[in-house]
Amino acid sequence: MEREIIELFMKHLRKQGDLPLGDDAGALRLGDEWLVATNDMLVKNTDVPNIMTPEQVGFKAVTMNVSDVAAMGARPIGFLFSLGVPMGIDWGYIEGVARGIGEALEFYGVPVLSADTNEVDDLIIDGIALGTTKRLLRRSGAKPGDLVCVTGDIGRALSGLMIYLNDLDIDRKTREILYEKLLEPKARVKEGIELSKYANSAIDISDGLSKGLHLLAEMSGVRIEIDGENLPIWKEVHEVASIINANPIEIALASGEEFELLFTIPPQNLEELSSDFTVIGTVHKGAGVFITASGKRLKMPLLGWEHFRRP
Amino acid sequence: MEREIIELFMKHLRKQGDLPLGDDAGALRLGDEWLVATNDMLVKNTDVPNIMTPEQVGFKAVTMNVSDVAAMGARPIGFLFSLGVPMGIDWGYIEGVARGIGEALEFYGVPVLSADTNEVDDLIIDGIALGTTKRLLRRSGAKPGDLVCVTGDIGRALSGLMIYLNDLDIDRKTREILYEKLLEPKARVKEGIELSKYANSAIDISDGLSKGLHLLAEMSGVRIEIDGENLPIWKEVHEVASIINANPIEIALASGEEFELLFTIPPQNLEELSSDFTVIGTVHKGAGVFITASGKRLKMPLLGWEHFRRP
């Protein structure tokens, strides 16, 4: 439904910013800088697993917006939010959300500029983040010859969700490591600022690595080749994969809301980066996304959380 | 409830922008300008009278945010929104809202920077507006010696609402004039930009003139004297007042969401203004808001829509 509604709106919104819609955030020229702005609504009933504490919910509402700013190569400079609160909600819960938002703002070093609250039927946090950068990273900037890289590791969020949804029996330490990424993901702010100087394109992994790769290839008009053996997958993800009899690479491709940055960069710029990242592929002329694993090259499937959901 | 929730949040949000919370919008220094940002959530079930068309709902979601930017003396430069859409909503309605948002953006000359949509139980439009200005207008800037002024006219929105709620019998022409302000209010953008050069303080009338005056007096640490005979009240408001046996001045003080700008300005700057406005009072040392009408001086009551609501 989301895509259809946005398309309907786009028909009527002819007046767009200096950057057409379609990136992680919108942007406007302001003097010799870009002002980046993004908003993302978190709806408790649909977006929040029950195991999440209210503090984690508040923290995540900030993270998901700050991450979009980071994906544009911008430094976050301000946060705003609207809160929709149902009648008769538990005040302890609301205070937990407030504490989580406050902790996240301290963590990212971002001030709150405005807050609004209304009575609605669901608990809703609509977060808005603003940022600035001299050089914008876009989804359409990947160039043949670039290396494809990803920050951090991938697959833990979905592995954690599968433990929770399927009530898997797994040792406490492993569960903690996976739940950390599921419940307390962090935006790659420092990395985004650094990448703005050296990378050609970027996107954050909010809908999964495979969707991110497809968007980059499509919007840049290039072909992407991924080396499946090189994906930064932790051993805890392999553990869950073997319990549920799934392929750890597929889990890594489908895992969403990890807020890692997927980016492409000319090889000669690689040594400038101080961030923690892994080279996972290459950019070429052409179209499509392909992955080579166990000696086989395949067209990469478009995977999402839903492919691993069990009734 | 709103005030208590915001207070709870403020306890946990220590990191604020270059302007403490409490104005129509937040603000940050950005080079030699101020970046102004504001957000306001419109909830259909509670904020929208049934007679409003979806186009008017969309237009108003933009107006209420652009108005907050104008009240800070800033030129609006971008709009963002999150849409909460219930399952099974009428697509024609959604398209009307889209058309209204599009019309408003053309009207105010503001580009859309980002849009997000989610499934929720109520129809919600959370709008965000950004603006810039060299000189910020704040609620706390009123100075003894200033004149108190208001743009346009006041009282029509509440008069229109009373016609609707009480099903008053009134001629079509009068109804149209009143409904125009109730259903299609416009933000005072051009006026706000002009006022940024000459005024000392400003606030938009979203919660009624009397609340606006009290906020100005309180936040500026001054006393305000209003001349009740000078309020810009149209004859159609007098007409409704006589039918429902109410005081037209009280209607004008209580009428909300008119989006007129209330401002204070040194007398010598008055002749610089090309905008349509009325001088309604004066600023003095001291505290409180007083109104003189029919030869009597009274402490101004804090009136809102609810004082005129009938079961």
From TrEMBL, chains A, B:
Mg(2+) 4 binds at residues 24, 38, 68. It catalyses: thiamine phosphate + ATP = thiamine diphosphate + ADP. It holds the Pfam family AIRS_C. It is an enzyme of class 2 (transferase). GO terms for biological process: thiamine biosynthetic process; thiamine diphosphate biosynthetic process. Residues 22-132 form the PurM-like N-terminal domain. One of its GO terms (molecular function) is ATP binding. It comes from the Archaea. Keywords: ATP-binding, Kinase, Magnesium, Metal-binding, Nucleotide-binding, Thiamine biosynthesis, Transferase. Signal peptide: none annotated. Mg(2+) 2 binds at residues 40, 68. Residues 143-291 form the PurM-like C-terminal domain. Mg(2+) 5 binds at residue 207. Mg(2+) 3 binds at residues 24, 68, 204. Pathway: Cofactor biosynthesis; thiamine diphosphate biosynthesis; thiamine diphosphate from thiamine phosphate: step 1/1. Its EC number is 2.7.4.16. Belongs to the thiamine-monophosphate kinase family. Reaction mechanism of ThiL seems to utilize a direct, inline transfer of the gamma-phosphate of ATP to TMP rather than a phosphorylated enzyme intermediate. Catalyzes the ATP-dependent phosphorylation of thiamine-monophosphate (TMP) to form thiamine-pyrophosphate (TPP), the active form of vitamin B1. This is Thiamine-monophosphate kinase. It comes from Thermococcus piezophilus. The lineage of its organism: Archaea, Methanobacteriati, Methanobacteriota, Thermococci, Thermococcales.
